[in-house]
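We read letters as residues; the fold follows as tokens. A sample entry reads:
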Amino acid sequence: MTTVNKDLQRERERCSFDPFELTHLLDGGVEKTALRREREELFLSDPELQDTIPAEFKSHKEKYEDAIRKGCIVLRKVQEIQNEGKADIDIYSQVLGGMLGSAILKDGNPLTLHYVMFIPAIMGQATVQQQGYWISRAWSCEIIGTYAQTELGHGTFIRGLETTATYDPVTQEFVLNSPTLTSYKWWPGGLGHTANYAVVVAQLYTQGQCKGIHPFIVQLRDEDTHEPLSGIKIGEIGTKLGMNATNNGFLGFDHVRIPREHMLMKNSQVLEDGTYVKAPSDKLTYGTMMFVRVVLIKDIARYLSKAVTIAIRYSAVRRQCQISSDKPEVQIMDYVTQQYKLFPHLAACFAIGMAADWIWEMYNNVTAELDQGELERLPELHALACCLKAVASSDASHGVEQVRLSCGGHGYMSASNLPATYGLLTAACTYEGENTVLFLQTARYLVKAWKQAISGQDLPPTVKYLTLLSRRVKQRPWKNTLTCIIRAHQSVAAGKIRLATENMDRRIRSGLSQEDSWNDTSIELAHAAESHCRAFIVERFSNAVRSLTGISKELHTVLSQLCELYAVYWVLQRVGDFLRFSCLNVEDVPLLQSRLEELLRLIRPNAIGVVDGFDIRDEILGSALGAYDGNVYERLFNEAMKSPLNQESVNESFSLYLRPFLKSNL
């Protein structure tokens, strides 16, 4: 039986609540915890899915080939579970992108986009008849697809895509073409050597007119030989900071013909004679990207929880320096600066996770309304999905880097798994919409909402706070209560939205065009969108904790402390904004700082209990620093011995280069 580090064991003994209670809360019940653990055991105990050589020591080619091998095994196992009637839709998110998926395929999965974007795109954009044909083929993995939208020269500006799909009424085909190098599709996961089909987004031309971007299903490779079809130029884009097994690829078309029926025609259509039938709303085409953003927010919270678990456990084990000269070296978690590096990001795991749960429910509700032809709540969902994805990915990538630094030099080692986790999270800041552009998309919605508020119109729930704050009601004196802090976050958001809108209008009145005025005000607009999102997260976190029932008083207290810490931390991070726009005064700041430090002290005894409550298996953490037993140094040494350089006492480079150099009498 493995011996647990004594410091870590003492931390667990003094925890005020049962970590399993938190585990069951996060999973949604005892039964769901049992099911998750059963699935983790099924996959992680499979010897075919375990690494004998760490991925860091494999070539780029070997990483991809191993990922394909594992990906096929994983999906076969999922199929077996389905055949036994034990599967639900959650299993795909668990093994393809969630915690379990990142443990099995640490550097990404080339098959993920088949399920996360190819199939959802068909479900959201195809007619019933098209779905009947394509979904059955895709779901059974008879074909493997990806989603090809981003191009070498265009990413977030979708309207600027250059790939063309020109309708030929004589043959009733679309001719796909890449007129420039920059029009090559660039980045889609699995595109390089994995997918044989893609949903391709291209500019539709019919009857001599461009009708804007539309989705098409295009076969890329022969279904038997996997060779690229005529006119298809395809390959992989090369290595990246992380996710090097996802097989991101490029794709060019040289007048490739596809049948008319391969245009996804749920919303817009091209008739046999080339007549174009417009969709009821151009907003309906953005469903796939919104789905991915909503799913991504939950994954971001999970990846951050991995990093925080590693750093907090390490901080309980690592002893360094003395606080008092007459006492031995202390656990580094006893330093208040260390607590400050760790605990706000621990709180962020819950803040982002609870926001993710809320927007997932909203997404499902709005999607059901769209099927009934109701588009009313779509702009609100789109605005919230944009800024939440941006804030969550930015906060989490910064958080992982902060907790990596909190682990000192050992956090820099691949064996800590913090560099790889950072690689996964920082990628999310640019894919599925670059964060600044997403903030500006949210800002467009907020400017409209502000103008509706000052004109007395009713507003949707997530911007309703603007109605009251647009009236410039005199604010109450500052109090260090969560209610006051939530209201202050809303005041900051409203103040920034108001100021950005007024400055933009002033520029327009001075003679600037609306477009130039928007660009000149864009820094303020992006900041306003971030503050709006922060206000939403703080309020959602508070409401979620307040509404919890059936949990112990001790657990509720810890969650309340984390909620307050998150809210206070962001006031102090943006203290200038709060002095400008809320009722916070300079003399209130020291009290707020004292409360932050008090919350750090209160959370300190339960920090290990909270990360234990995440219930992340050692195989999923994949970290020598963060394992449950806390045997950091033994694990670091064992990982070092796996290096190919340590398999021989003298490397051949000595006789080839070093010895001649040493004997050359320079």
In short: The chain has two domains: 1-45+286-658, 144-279.
